[in-house]
Each structure stands twice: as C-alpha cells, then as structure tokens.
Design brief:
Helix content: 25-40%
Mean pLDDT: 79
Number of helices: 11
Largest sheet: 6 strands, antiparallel
Distance between the termini: 110 Å
CATH class of the largest domain: Alpha Beta
C-alpha cells in the first residue's frame, strides 16, 4: 500500500513539474477586439494584444502593421507570420509565444480627419508639430470648387462621383460645380494597388450629398471613408448695392448683376437681374443681399370680395361658375372662394381654386 501511495505521489509530482515547465516557457499574446490608432502610426504587438510572459513582453515593440486611412483588420495568422519573421523562420520567440484570438479591428483615432493629407506627404511630417497642426487645420477648412466635366469618364473615385452627379443634374450640367473639402479630395485620390467602390449615402439631388469611398485590396476591404460633396449651380443674381427698405421700388441703380455658384435650393429662388425692374421689396434688405423671389412683393391679382369666374374641368367637360373671393391672392395662389345662390347663406358653398388671372381661377 505504501509503495502504491509513493508511486502516485511521484507521478503527481512529475505532472506538476511538466506543467510548471510549460507555463514558465510559454508566453501569450491575446488579441484585443478593436483598437484606435493615429493615421500613419506604426502598430506594434503591444498596441493590439494583451501580453503575458517574458517572451511576449520582449516582442511588444515588434511592428505588425501601419495604420491605414480607414478601419481594417489584422488576423491572428498575420501576427504569427510577423513573429516568425522577427528573427528568422526558426525564431525561438515564435515558438514560445501563443497568439490567442482570431482578429483585431484597427480604427483611426477620432477627431483626426485632417491627418489624411498630412500622412500622404512625408515632407510635411518632418517640419515639426506646429507645422503639422497648421497643415491639418488648412486641409480641414479649405474647400475646392471642382468642374465635374473635367473628370467625368476617368476611372477614379473622383471621376465616379462627378459622373453620378452630372447624370443627376443633367439639364443643368453646364452650370454644375462641386464644392469639396480638400481632406475629402484626398480620400478621392486613387492609390496604387487598390480598387474603389463609391456608394451614395444620401439623396443625389440635394444641397449636400454624402458618399462612402470603399477601397479594396483584391477582395478584402482596406478602408471605408465618408465624404461630403456640395453641388453648386452657376446663377446670375441681383445684388443689393445699399441698404434698401421695404416698399422701395428697385431699378438699375439699386442692384448690380453678378455670377455666383449657389446651392440648388437657393439657385431655384434667386431672381434674374433683367426681370427685377420696377419690382417692390416685400422686406428690408441690407447691402450685399441676393434678391430672392420671396423678397419681392407680388401684385395682387384678385382682391377680397371680387367676383371671380371659377373653371372646373372634368375630362372633356368644362364647367364655369361665379364665386366671391374670401381673401386676396396673386398669380398661382390657392385662395378660398364662396358661391352664393338665391338663398344667400343657406345655398352658399365654399371651395378653393388657383388664381390664373384677374377675376379668374381654376379648380385643380
């Protein structure tokens, strides 16, 4: 019995020694789920993994990758390959470090959009921190007006964006320009070895259009970047030359003509300079204001209590009746009217119609 017990103790002691030896000689690198790093920064093993053990700690400064312009993944297999190449294919470091986890997602640091252009220009990085900050600020705040017709047909991200917007504004393509931040233009600059996909993330016919620029290496997504494009339409506008009060009559001395690139919603409201003569201001405008249609008082075509001929078309049949306007209205306004029968108030019927001329309206 004593011999059996001694044998059991001996076996248990050997097992513990083997486990201790294994634990002492093995280090682990457990990949984090995700990390954030500055654009262009060197990504080390310590950046993407929790290191346990002497060998893992000593390999913490090993370069695994460099930060891309967008989010990307580093797989466990990539880390193992870097460890194997650290000191040659037979490196003892590789044999003693166990990589745990499947992958780590690397994302750019928040609030560093201006670094895209900076990272692409090594000379800018060498000028020092103050110069780098100034460059980032300049890239972030500067916009460029792009003529899309010069880029359409080019197999580049910018060419695809230009073609999409030219097709959207087809009837006004000659007047179209695209205002783009310089930092976003950098995202539309192709890089060797990558292919691109452009996805619209908002309505194309609007004042602001958002796109996603997706870069691929083979079939793998390398980066995803959001950019914004501001369509502008070339427009002839009338500019107020001096502060002008409500009720003033406009003439050639009150306004000057200019050509500007405006957001589509504003371009649709501006008044052509050659059609502004003898117009009356509906509100006071300061010097330098662009005259829009809502700034001009419209002539009242139908006054309250006027008798109006109201026309209603039903298929091939047109019916006309007489009504009394219950409010003032200009051309194109929908106003309330009332038909009055022989029984006065008892036979009155309310209706709405669009003013189409003096004393005339149509039920649409």
């Amino acid at each position: 019995m004593t011999a059996v017990r001694n044998s059991f103790i001996l076996v248990l002691t050997m097992i513990i020694c083997v486990v201790d030896a294994s634990a002492a000689g093995t280090s682990t690198a457990t990949l984090r789920s995700s990390v954030r790093v500055a654009h262009g920064a060197v990504i080390t093993l310590a950046d993407i993994a929790t290191l346990d053990g002497e060998q893992a700690q000593s390999a913490g400064t090993l370069e695994i990758a460099r930060a891309e312009s967008g989010a990307f993944e580093i797989s466990a297999e990539q880390v193992r390959q870097k460890l194997a190449a650290h000191a040659g294919a037979t490196s003892s470091t590789q044999a003693l470090i166990t990589v745990r986890g499947e992958r780590v997602v690397v994302r750019p640091s928040r609030g560093r959009a201006g670094e895209v252009a900076l990272a692409m220009d090594p000379d800018s990085r060498a000028t020092g921190a103050s110069s780098a900050s100034a460059t980032r600020a300049a890239v972030k705040d500067t916009n460029t007006l792009v003529d899309p017709k010069l880029h359409v047909g080019a197999s580049t991200p910018l060419g695809i964006v230009c073609e999409m917007l030219l097709n959207t504004w087809d009837t006004q393509r000659a007047a179209l320009r695209l205002e783009i931040k310089d930092a976003d233009l950098q995202q539309l600059t192709p890089r060797a070895g990558l292919r691109y996909e452009i996805a619209a993330k908002s309505a194309l016919r609007s004042d602001r259009v958002d796109f996603e620029v997706i870069a691929y290496t083979g079939t793998k997504i390398t980066s995803r970047e959001r950019i914004r494009v501001l369509p502008k339409l070339e427009s002839s506008v009338a500019i107020i030359t001096a502060d002008t009060r409500r009720g003033a009559h406009l003439d050639a001395a009150c306004v000057r003509s200019e050509t500007r690139f405006l957001a589509p919603s504003i371009a649709a409201r501006v008044v052509e300079p050659n059609s502004i003569a003898d117009s009356v201001l509906a509100r006071t405008l300061p010097e330098g204001s662009i005259v829009e249609s809502d700034d001009l008082a419209r002539e009242v075509t139908v006054h309250r209590n006027d008798r109006v001929i109201v026309r209603r078309e039903i298929g091939m049949i047109a019916v006309e009746l007489e009504a009394v306007a219950l409010e003032d209205g200009s051309m194109g306004d929908i106003i309330a009217l009332e038909t009055r029968g022989a029984g006065r108030g008892r036979d009155s019927k309310a209706l709405s119609a669009e003013v189409v001329g003096r004393g005339r309206a149509v039920v649409r």
